[in-house]
Specification:
single chain, 337 residues, alpha/beta, 13 helices, globular
Length: 337
Amino acid sequence: MEEIKVSVIIPVYGVERYIERCARSLFSQTMTEGVEFIFVNDCTNDRSIELLFACIEYYPQLRSQIIIINHLQNRGLATARQTGFEAARGEYILHLDSDDYFEHDMLEVMYESAVTHNSDVVVADFFISHKKGDEYRKCPLSDSKEILLKSIIANWSYGYQSVFAYVWNKLVKRCIYKKHNIHSIEEINVGEDLIITIQILYHAAVITKVDRAFVHYNKQNYGSYTNDKSTSNTRQRLMATEFVANFLSSKGIDCDEELDERRFRVKLIGLANCDTDNLQEFLSMYPQLDYEKLKHLVPPHWRLPYKFALQGKIGQFVFMRNLILYIRKIYRFIYGR
């Protein structure tokens, strides 16, 4: 049996506009020997799988290395990733979202770095892909494990100098997941990266960095989990935050300031996007958070409406919120961001 060096896990749902680009970026890698590509069909209701099969036809030499797993019902991103992981046989694991894509030599460069340094984790930079082009995002490593973890939880307070919570810019030894029972939580599809990445990096003994960007993170897919600011998804973000808070507390790592900042920001996301019926739920969350201490995290155009909300002036808040969201919608249409 061929040795599997890298397992790439790709959940598939609602990505017919992007799946071919994603798949071609994988099948055209400079390193395909010893690589398995695991696609998890999470009951997508569009042509994503049909288009994936059509793409595979152009790479007959890789057919034995491509695995497609079909869920019997839609179970969400977290479970799709977990299904892929449970099927994976590679020494290293790499995730890719099916609306994103890789540079052609990502696997080769990342894997060579892992072997050279016997790395538990290899981190790389990435591109944020907007309508107008790509923005390069650096992901510097910190000499301190504590700072590394804190900068992931509250990257804005570290000047966005972070490796970030994303799983797709990190090549990880599969045994790290296995040894420490690190797995996705089915009901948490938003913030799932945070849960996995914090645990992986806490347990990793050797973390190395490749100073290149490989993943093109697609910010134009407004139907993605990341762009979905619904009440349900905001609750999941908070669940992920509390999971990480409990994990770090159990390890004696104090990230209270960073966690409170994250709680505050997620609470604001909830207030900005929830239905009027759910406003009170988010207003009552985390009463211990000090608005005056944390208001620097609020964009200037949101400060007055949030003040109205916190003062119980719900009518004024809703009016201003709707106006801001309408202007943002126009801005996104024009600039694609």
